Amino acid sequence: MENKSVECNGTKIWLGDDGILRSIMKAQGIKDTLTNKKETVHAIDQLCNGKKRPFLADIRTEKSLDESKNHYSDYSQEVPPISAMAMIVPVLLSRKIGAYFLGSHKPMFPFRPFTDEDKATSWLKKFIT
């Protein structure tokens, strides 16, 4: 069963009963601005209630690498309460996204791209405190 959810910048975000914060992009081409990032972090803060949570971001509907990486990547101005992040990606983008996040961009928490939701969830469960 799903707990409270928030719609923010074309993304639905919710905390599942398993303790994993989840999001799914519902709209294409959301403009990536500092204001949008602040709103997203604020929504995550509300759902986490001060506790760091693992985060599962489903971006399988995204068509380009630029849109997806920009939405979730640089939180240098705003730090979300995330203990680890798994990103469910389209098969065709999985290597590009993995190379971006694990190569030139250093995430502030453990990160792995997945094409399988069950494998992503299993990996994230290690980060539930």
Throw out a few tags for this protein.
six-stranded mixed β-sheet; Transcription Regulator spoIIAA; alpha/beta; 129 residues; 4 helices
Low-confidence stretches: 65-73
Q: What is the domain tally?
A: 1
CA radius of gyration is: 13 Å
Name of the top-level CATH class: Alpha Beta
- Calculate the mean pLDDT score and round it: 77
Main sheet specs: 6 strands, mixed
User: Helix coverage percent of residues?
Assistant: 25-40%
Q: How many beta-strand runs?
A: 6
- Report the principal-axis shape: globular
Report how far apart the termini are: 20 Å
What is the chains' assembly state? single chain
Give me the secondary-structure category.
alpha/beta
Describe this structure in words.
The two termini are 20 Å apart. The protein has a six-stranded mixed beta sheet, with helices on both faces. The longest helix is centred in the first third of the chain and has 15 residues, at 34-48. The chain has a single domain (2-127), classed as Transcription Regulator spoIIAA (2-Layer Sandwich), CATH 3.30.750. The protein has four helices and six strands, in the order E-E-E-H-E-H-E-H-E-H. The protein is an alpha/beta fold and 129 residues long. It has helices spanning 34-48, 65-72, 94-104, 117-124; strands at residues 2-8, 11-16, 21-25, 53-58, 82-88, 111-114. Strand 3, helix 1 and strand 4 (53-58) form a beta-alpha-beta unit. The radius of gyration is 13 Å and the shape is globular.
